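Ticket #4471: structure export looks truncated?
Reporter: QA, pipeline team
Priority: medium

Steps to reproduce: submit the single chain below to the structure queue and open the exported record.
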Amino acid sequence: MIAIIDYGMGNLGSVAKALKALGADITVTQSSRGLDKADKIVLPGVGSFGYCMRSLRKLKLIPALKRNIESGKSYLGLCLGMQILFEESKEGGNIKGLGILKGRVKKFNFTRSTQYAVRSTLKVPHMGWNQIKKSQSHNDTKTQEKNMCPLLTNIPEGTWMYFVHSYYVEPRDKDVIAATTDYGIDFCSMVWKDNIYATQFHPEKSQAFGMKMLENFAAL
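Actual output as written to the record:
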């Protein structure tokens, strides 16, 4: 069973509908017991970093979430569900995250003083379709089978995914970066470490290949 965390704001409907369409057994929960009983956990993210962390704290879900991830249970964070894995975010000030992964969350900052003039024309939030590029460490042809993130199985290089965000993660450990995307800068658009999977894009809104990625997670 896959537990989808309801923290009071999120695209729960589209994520639940997508997983149901794949035949997955799901439950939407706000309880630590719901997380403990599940085989996998999904945290969809819409809204602000601070609101999400406050809501998880109010629901007393943070200890259970950390405990289940540390036990080896598969976790999939979507958009904000990826960002809160890190130590802190600049959104609304220096707000502490879960600290499961080392690094921080920064805002896109494109100004006319930026090195490349084209960056000054880029809008924030980054919204719409963009391509993902598998990171070099996970895309080495000699060790591809060993190093490729399982969620990227049968996902072609350069696949277009759907994004809506103003902030992006900057991992301290570059080995956790499973994919990057170019939006003025090459930013981390997907992470993978052991049982932790997370995307800055929304696979549930990314048509066939997004559904394939969710299918890969459900099949872990």
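Status: closed, not a bug. The export was complete when the record was re-opened. Leaving a note from the reviewer for reference: Residues 88 and 94 are 6 Å apart (CA to CA).
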